[in-house]
Amino acid sequence: MDNSKSRPARNGANPPLRVAIPPPHLGEELYFHEKCGRNAVVINNGHSAHRKEPYDTPYHGLVFSHRFLFDNELFEVTVDEIISKWSGYTFGIGVTAQNPAIKDDDEDNLEWLHDTLACSWYSYGNSVYENGANIIEEYGIDLANVKEGDRVGVMRKDNGTLHFFLNGMDKGPSATDVPTDVFGVIDLGGCCVRASVIDPLTPVSR
User: Fold this and answer.
1) Which domain holds residue 56?
2) How many H-runs (helices) and E-runs (strands) does the chain carry?
3) Three-class SS of residue 17?
4) Hey, what's the torsion of the CAs at 75, 78, 83, 88, to 10 degrees?
5) Is residue 102 one of the residues assigned to a domain?
6) How many structural domains does the chain have?
7) Which tens digit of pLDDT belongs to each residue from 20-70?
């Protein structure tokens, strides 16, 4: 019987261990890009954003991730502040192929995610949209009812499907054939006026 697999190395040292290589984004921080909607402000070193003059308008609150998302990487934010005005207007979240770093001045006038028509997938209320067209009317997550402290996220899987998350729960596939190199984007619209990016390496209290 060959017991060589259980024998220690001849020099007395243990044989080298196979170490699992972490995903490429593990340890790489994700935060908000400095370029955002004209009624939004990125603060706290890119980790939070809020809408200016929240009682004057529900629009122009788009905020983007500072880099594209890796496959299977969760772009997740905490809803920090809700106001009672603007009922019927809803928080939005999704992904877009539009790079905020090369966003031109005209794009500062984008009111909401419906205006980012080029290669964008996102959710408002309980619906999911692709390039401005409603592709799912009853998805199973209603962003009109988010509360302060709720966590909302989006992820592009390595098979090209897009999933939305609410408080850590995967709500299932919402779109297919979503390309790589998409950026996370939120709309601080309506009653939601402040949100913060969740660091994936920081444990979340449940």
Assistant:
1) 32-197
2) 0, 14
3) coil
4) 40
5) yes
6) 1
7) 444 545 558 899 999 898 899 999 999 999 999 899 988 889 999 999 999
